[in-house]
Every structure is written in C-alpha cells, then in structure tokens.
Amino acid sequence: MRIAQVAPLYESLPPKLYGGTERIVHYLTEELVRQGHDVTLFASGDSSTTAKLIACVDEGLRLKRHCNDPLAYHIIQMEKLSTRINEFDILHFHTDYLHFPFSNMLEIPSVTTLHGRLDIPELQDIYHTFPYQNLISISENQRLPIPQGNFVKTIYHGLPTNLHHQGKGRGEYLAFLGRISPEKGVERAVEIALATNTKLKIAAKIDKTDFAYYEEKVKFLLDHPLIEYIGEISEQQKTEFLGSAKALLFPIDWPEPFGLVMIEAMACGTPVIAFNRGSVPEIMEDQVTGFIVDSVTEAIEAVSRLKYLSKMDIRRVFERRFTAAHMADNYIDVYHSLVKDRYKNVHRRSMPRLNKPA
C-alpha cells in the first residue's frame, strides 16, 4: 500500500528529546516500512527514516532558531503534499485539524489521528463544520468531549519491542518523566516522594508557556535533598532511567488522551502509580502494571505495595498490548477499510443509470 504519513513539524522524527506525537509517528512509519509498505513521510528535514522523506522545513521547529511563525511551514507541508497527491492510496494526518479544508476536497481517502486533548470549546465548532473527516482516537476517553466526531477506530500507541528492555532491579528512587506543567502533577510527585522518604528523580522539559508556573510552584521544591531534577533526557536514556526506578509516578490532573510514558515504563517492567484520570483505566491494568489511585494519600500507600508486583508480568502486558507491530496492524486494517469504501463510492457514482420503464 502507498501511504503518506503527515507529521507535525515541531520535532524531528524521532525527536531528539521530548516529543510524544512525533515519536509515535516515527515508530508507526518504521513499522509500516518493515512490513513492506511504500511509505512517504512529510516531516522536518533532520528526521531519520527508512521511508521516503519529504522535508517541509530544515529542522524541527521547537529547536529551530528565529522561527516566529511555525504555521507557515505547515502550510508549505500541505502544498508539498498536494503536488504528489496521486502517488498515494491513503493519507494519514497527525496535524490536528489544520488540513481539514484541504483533505475535505480530495478523492483520495484520508484519516487523522488526534493526539491531543479534545475538551477545548472551539473544537465543538470544528467538528460540527467537518463532520465527515475520518478520525482515529488514541483512547476511548479521549473521544468523550466530541461525540459528533466521525471516529472510525481507537488505536492505542505502540513501541518497538526491542526499544526498551526489562530493568534489572527495583531501584531506590521514584521516577517522574515528561513535562513540568500544572496538569502533569510534579508537585504531587514531590509530595508522594517526601511522604515515603524516597528519592525522586525528575526527567522533564519546561515549555516557555509553563516557565512562570515552574518558577512560582516548582523550583523551590527541587532544593530538597531527596529531589533531583535531571532535565530532558533522550530515548536512549529512558531505558536506564525507567528500568532502574522503583516506580513511575503519573499523578496527572487532566484528561490524559493516552500517556505514552506509562507504556514506556511497562516496556521496562517498571510499575506505574497513576491517578485515575483520562485514559489511565484503559492503559493500566490495576494491581498488575501498577496501581490506579484517586488521591495523594492512596498513592503514598501504593508505594508500600510495589514489592508485590512482578516486573516480568508488567513487561508481558506491554508485549501483548502495546507494541509497534500491533499498532501498525490496526492502522493497516483502517487503511484497507477506507480505501475499499472509497473505491465502492467512486464505482457507484461511475455506473450508468438505467432508464426507468415508461
């Protein structure tokens, strides 16, 4: 199958540091190529891929100097795609709703994976205006704010089986991995660590939009001897960071659409203590891959029960549910279904009409 993967341009594929969406697009693209499909990736020029790469900007926009208008390069991306449109059987977008006016006019089928939160008021008008866009959700919970969306399937994220390996020990620290922002709950992670007298290692990025929050609410917490702030880490560093941890803390305070870090921890055999929000009950298997909790008090109590969990069982759940091969197989099913439906519709419109008898 000839597939166009249209990625956001904020990070390279794979990202050099943080970047969940771009990381998943990379894993999907590489697995589709591995399975023998003809894949073209529309992404930043510093991406690394076995697919055909169409560079839409020289480097990922987050690390690009003097980029004041990232939307400009996404418009260029749409133009580059439009000039090659007849080379593909299916278009797979990962660019939110930016392409909707463009893809709405195409005969070639397309599908859009929504990677972000959907409980934003303006999105109601978007999905009322574009009711026929084929959408993929990354959890059932993610769909809830826009029941009018034309969702064709929920497909969970997946990682290459050999990307991470089961850690050797339980470690002496709790881990926090991701972003320092109000909804990610790093303050609660610190509270849990201090209450259990356990070291906490924080590997996280700080976006410009969250810097004021960091300065006011978080920075002073890092002065405690039990708390260690590492900063952003690369994909290669995650295996050791997560695999050596006693547990990953995921104390979120928002409707998390998926939570990639949870399955990264599972791939390392590391249990997760996660707050019961968003996709967490779908991704986690309570008392197998960790503990689902409703409060800091419950999280503190869960730390004492980590010794009853099996790292091998956690890794098995990852291999059964969250591999890149499993993810790609689900997407291929969707691609075939949409191509088949489009062929039927075109064939039906092209059939000669029979005159009714007088």
Oligomer: single chain
N-to-C series of helices and strands: EHEEHEHEHEHEEHEHEHEHEHEHHH
Overall number of domains? 2
User: How many extended strands?
Assistant: 13
Task: Label the overall shape.
Answer: globular
Largest β-sheet summary: 7 strands, parallel
Radius of gyration over C-alpha positions, nearest whole angstrom: 22 Å
Question: How are strands sequenced across the largest beta sheet?
Answer: 3-2-1-4-5-6-7
CATH-derived architecture of the largest domain: 3-Layer(aba) Sandwich
Total DSSP helices: 13
Mean pLDDT equals 93
Question: What percent of residues are in strands?
Answer: 15-25%
The helix/strand class is alpha/beta
Corresponding CATH superfamily of the largest domain: Glycogen Phosphorylase B
Tell me the CATH topology of the largest domain.
Rossmann fold
CATH class of the largest domain: Alpha Beta
Helical coverage, percent range: 25-40%
- CA distance, first residue to last residue: 47 Å
Keywords: Transferase
Protein name: Glycosyl transferase
Domain Glycosyl transferase family: 170-312
Organism: Sphingobacterium gobiense
Labels describing this entry:
six-stranded parallel sheet; 2 domains; 16% strand; 13 strands; 13 helices; Rossmann fold; seven-stranded parallel sheet; 358 residues; alpha/beta
Blueprint (SSEs and pairs):
Elements: E1 2-6, H1 20-34, E2 38-43, E3 52-55, H2 70-82, E4 90-93, H3 100-103, E5 110-113, H4 121-129, E6 135-137, H5 140-143, E7 151-154, E8 173-179, H6 186-195, E9 199-205, H7 211-218, E10 227-229, H8 235-243, E11 247-250, H9 260-267, E12 272-275, H10 280-283, E13 290-293, H11 296-303, H12 311-321, H13 324-350
Parallel strand pairs: 1-2, 1-4, 2-3, 4-5, 5-6, 6-7, 8-9, 8-11, 9-10, 11-12, 12-13
Helix pairs in contact: 1-13, 6-11
Protein name: Glycosyl transferase
Domain Glycosyltransferase subfamily 4-like N-terminal: 18-126
GO molecular function: glycosyltransferase activity
